[in-house]
Every structure is written in structure tokens, then in C-alpha cells.
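tl;dr need the bound structure. longer version: we got a ligand (nicotinamide-adenine-dinucleotide) that a collaborator sent over and nobodys looked at where it sits. i said id run it. heres the input, straight from their email, havent touched it
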Amino acid sequence: MIDPFEPYATEPYSNFADPRTRDGFQAELESVRARLGQEWPLVIDGQRRTTGQWLASHDPCKRDVLVGRAAAAGPNDIEDAFQAAQRAFESWGSLPMVHRARALVKLAAVMRRRKWELAAWEVFEAGKNYLEAEADVAEAIDFCEYYARQAMDLDDRLETYPYPGEENTLTLQPLGVGVVIPPWNFLLAIMVGTTVGPVVAGNTVVLKPSPKTPIIAGLFMDMLDEAGFPPGVVNLLTGEDAVLGDALVDDARTRFINFTGSVGTGMRIYERASKVQPGQGFLKKVFMEMGGKDAMIVDETADLDAAADAAIAAAFGFQGQKCSAMSRLIVVDEVHDALVEKVRVRAERLQVGDAEQNADVAAVIDEVQHAKILGFIDRAKPHATLLMGGNAGSDAGWFIEPTIFTDVDPDSELAQEEVFGPVVAVVRARDFDHALQLANDTKYALTGGLFSRLRDRIERVRSEFRVGNLYINRKITGSLVGVQPFGGFDMSGTNAKAGGPDYIRLFLEAKTVTERF
Ligand code: NAD
């Protein structure tokens, strides 16, 4: 079928340096502030319900401010959500692809109209500054627009070779009911992308957002209604991991699990999903996008100012709470001291403060992450040189100073484990070969980068730097949907490549029909 939609283009960003734009966004923050503290129900089969149990979501920058309370689901809600998803699948799964694709384009339009409102909620719920918040909403819109178009490419019969006397067709059909488990860091974008990808293919889902950011999920459900999605296609279960996690993964009706999160949780889900439950009768498919220990290499030919700018953006943007964040800076000895000094000067200039004031570096997501990150810092102090930071900031929220360690042992915890906070490990390499070897010496393989002017080195990293997303002479964060399909290798996951041309195909199975005439 010919693509009925206008050509795909990524959503533009606002220029918050312009005072009028900034004032406009601050007015939006005020109007969302008036809605903080509300209660947000579960949504099952299109019906809102509360349970008497609540999950509180607080502003990371002002820990006393309640962003909202989300209903905490229990076993009955899980049962009802699966039943609703199964019922909805009967009709949703048999619709023409274009019907569902249009629903995604409509959802994108709804989100676009509410872009700043959604971004303002993200400022409060996740501590994102203006640009980070808006970029997350833009990415959610991009996922809808891009997947709508990708789905259309899978609508027709796939190509097979002709054979005399027969007709052979190869067509795709959805899997059934799936469970979607996103993280809190790209609270709207990843939640939307991992939901609408399977949904456009005809599947129905039970969505279990992170208990750290449940309110944005309530807004998402409102927008699905506004866009006209039928009841039961997406069912929202907010609540505690201890109640929901294993129960959803283990359920005999779960055909697939679309997970993004840490390697620890991912491994648990992977293992449990492999067990065939009584009455199951199929193997569960699992798509696991997990963590990173992402490195940027800087060699002696690099533009050191450009490299330092990129390092700062990739390490400290959204407080380093990105799977793609630069957590290792591997610098060739010859330029090590010069580059580190440039990075230090820039990092000292970063303004730490409230996301609402559009600070460069705001608070980390919650008390648990705060303690975890400070634990990494404390354990590193005896073994590495603390160049700057290393402390908690104002106790109004979960602040941590931008922190840089130098002389980091490449085998140490700080150089091997994902910290997921504003902490950089600088590792000194003898030369470029050594730097590349160090960069690859990790169980993760998500993002990586090189700053160099030498063509032969650039060509070498293209083939030898083992990461799913490699960036040359730019920052290693900020992938765009459809432009830089995203996902890693090894313990970074199953390489679903979100925002890539093969993504929707994951949630479909192929059927071959042969008729002899
Ligand atoms: P997490 O593993 O703590 O949680 C991820 C999701 O799993 C959440 O919804 C959580 O509630 C849920 N969960 C927790 N325990 C569960 C259980 N037993 N069963 C089922 N679900 C369970 O991760 P997080 O802190 O939310 O997110 C940060 C992590 O996500 C980092 O490791 C980061 O690198 C990774 N991440 C990866 C990508 C990627 O594309 N590769 C993107 C963003 C984040």
C-alpha cells in the first residue's frame, strides 16, 4: 500500500534561550503546578479505577512536593487487565494496519498539541530541565509518527519467489497480549515507544510503568482516549514492583515482554519468561533493552574543545541518568591533562539546581538512586583521584554534584558498573590502540564515541568498537527516532533497535500459505 501519510520528520525543539519562549514555558509550569497532588487511577478496559492503595510520586528537586498519587494495583486488577487485553485483541488484532497506523498519527497530533504541558509534568515528576523535558516529549511524538509509517511497510504480503502451479503468500500477524515494562528515565518517550510499537502491529498490552514516575502514565492514558483508542488495547497497571513484576512476567497469557531497564531486572525477567507456565502452550518472546557503561575515546589529533563540550553534554545531561550517558572518558596520554582541564573548567560552570529554574544539572530521581550513586562515589574515593564534586548537594531534593574521577583503574567498579548518575570515570590510555581496547573491555555494548581527525582510526572504530550506537566527533547521547535507531549488544540487550526499521516486525509472526492450483 502506498504510504498515506506525509513524509516523516523529527519533531523540532524550542529555543529556551529566547526569553519569550522561556516565559511561555514557565506559564505552562504554573498551570501544571495547579494540578499537582491529584489522584490518578488504573485504567482497565477503558475504565478508571482506584484500589484504596496509593503510590506517591514526588518532585526530585523538592522532595516535599507531591506530584500526584497513582493507584496501586493488586492481583484482581492484574486478572482484569489480562482479560481486557485478550478481549480487545480479538477486534484490534484483525483491523487493517492503516486503521491502527492512523490511530498513532492521531496520538502524535494530540501529544503535539499538549507538548509543553507534558514537558512541564516531566520537569516536576523527573527533574528534567526544559530542553531535556521537551526532547522526551518530542521523542514520544516521533515514535508514533515513525512506527505508523513503518507498520504500513509490513501490511502487504512479503516477497517470496514464484513457483510453478502454486500461489505462495507470506503475511504477518500480531502475537497477542504483551506486557510493557519501561524505565523512569525517558518517562514518556520510552513508555510510549515500547507501547505503540507492539500496538500498531495489532497486539494489545498491559502497561506497567516505573513506580518512580507513574503520573506521566496517567496522562498517557488520557491521551490514548483523546486519540480514540478502543478500550482494552492499552491497560494501565501502576503499582509496586513486588506485586506486579513477577506476576505479569510469569502470567501464562503473556505472549511477549517489551522491557527497558537495568541489567539486573532484565536478567530476572529473561530467566522467568523462559519457563513455560501451566496452560501456556507457546514460548514467550522477550525484548530486553538494558544498561550501558558508555565510553568516549579522545585521541591526540582530536579537537579538544569540541570533545570537552561533547563530554559535558553526554555525561551530565539529565544528571547522567541516560543509558547512553558518557560514564567513561578514555583519553590518550598525550592530550590527557589538556583535555581533562578543559572538561573540568566546563563542568565547574554547570549550574546545579532546580529543574523548574532550568538548571543545567538538577536532582537525581529519588532517594534510592541518590544513595546508590553516593555509594559508588564513596567506594571509588580510596582508589581514584577525585577531581571535582563527590558530594550531595542541597537537601531540598536529591542533588549530587557533577563528579569527575581521574586515574581510574579500568578494572575497578567505577569503570565497569553502570552508575546512572552525574559521575565520570576518566581513564588514561597509552595510545589509541590501548584506548580502543579499554573501551571494549566491558560487559555492556550500548553507546560509544571517538574524537579524532584520523580517517584510519575512524574507520577502525566503525568496525572494532563494539557498541550498538557509535558516534564520531559528536556527543554520544540524543539519538533521534528513525535517524539513529537505538539499542545495544551483549549485556546491553537484545538489540531491538527502537526507532529503527525492523522494530515493528519484532511484534509480528509470519505465516506462509501455499495453494496448489
Ligand atoms: P529498573 O530495572 O529498575 O526498572 C525498569 C522497569 O522494570 C521499571 O518499570 C520497574 O518498575 C520494572 N521492574 C522492577 N523490578 C521488576 C521485576 N521484578 N519484574 C518486572 N519488572 C520489574 O531500571 P530503571 O532504574 O527504571 O531504569 C534505568 C535503567 O534502564 C538503566 O540501567 C538504563 O541504562 C536502562 N535503560 C536502557 C535503555 C536502552 O534503550 N537500552 C533506555 C533507558 C534506560
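gonna send this back to them w/ a short note. Residues 294-481 form a domain with the Aldehyde Dehydrogenase; Chain A, domain 2 fold (CATH 3.40.309.10).
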